[in-house]
Amino acid sequence: MSPDAFTAAERAVFRRLRTPDRIQRFLDDLAYNKELGGPTCRSPRRVLRDRTAHCMEGALFGAAALRMLGHPPLLLDLEAVRDDDHVLAIFRVRGHWGSLAKSNYSGLRYREPVYRTLRELVMSYFEHYFNLRQEKTLRGYSRPVNLTRFDSMAWMTAEEDPWAVPEHLCTIAHTAVLAPRLISRLSHVDDRLFAAGLVGRVY
């Protein structure tokens, strides 16, 4: 799908997002979409127009913005228990993985491209991935999904919600991050890290 699918005004916004960390700052500045009117899955075009996004919408936007920089548009799903899944837009620089994300939790956002493997990248989220009962909830991760497979449905510019993307992420195999014998021994998140994770949270 060509960047020309975006309007000149939309491309001008993307041109200002010249590095992954600038894309992340743009995502951080967007209002967090609480889906008060019902579930949504905005395309990057609609995120630009509405200036709001949640995790899935932020990942789609991040993947589109990375694509404009020459990266493949890759998503990776983090699977949780007693919690929502979290979706990352991932990228590679000099053989090392980094990620972008929109989250209502401060510790589940950007990662610098310093991780040698996807597992290393995923595990950097482990201590910060918790629910409101202070349980550590991350349990698995998917393989990278290249969104070019969804180009025929114009996922970057569609006015209709591209639900096929999150549906695909939910159905593919995930790799466990913990052996079952370790799960019962997990401690709860301490109060200081818990409070830090909720900084800026939209209720």
Polypeptide structure, described:
The termini are far apart. Strand 4 and strand 5 form a beta hairpin. Helix 2 (20-29) runs antiparallel to helix 4 and helix 3 (44-50) crosses helix 4 (55-68). Strands 3, 4, 5, 6, 7, 8 and 9 form a 7-stranded antiparallel beta sheet that branches. Strands 1-2 form a two-stranded parallel sheet. It has 203 residues and is of the alpha+beta class. It has one domain (3-197). The radius of gyration is 17 Å and the shape is globular. Helices cover 32% and strands 19% of the residues. It contains 8 helices and 9 strands.
Features of the shown structure:
203 residues, alpha+beta, 7-stranded antiparallel sheet, two-stranded parallel sheet, 9 strands
Task: List unreliable stretches of 5+ residues.
Answer: none
Question: What percent of residues are in strands?
Answer: 15-25%
- Shape, per Cα inertia axes: globular
Structural class: alpha+beta
Average pLDDT number = 97
- When the domains are counted, the total is 1
Largest sheet: 7 strands, antiparallel
Cα-atom radius of gyration: 17 Å
Q: For the terminal residues, how far apart are their CA atoms?
A: 36 Å
Instruction: Give the total of beta strands.
Output: 9
* Helix content percent band: 25-40%
Helices and strands, in N-to-C order?
A: HHEHEHEEEEHEEHEHH
Number of helices: 8
In short:
By secondary structure, this protein is α+β, with helices and mostly antiparallel strands. The protein is built from 8 helices and 9 strands.
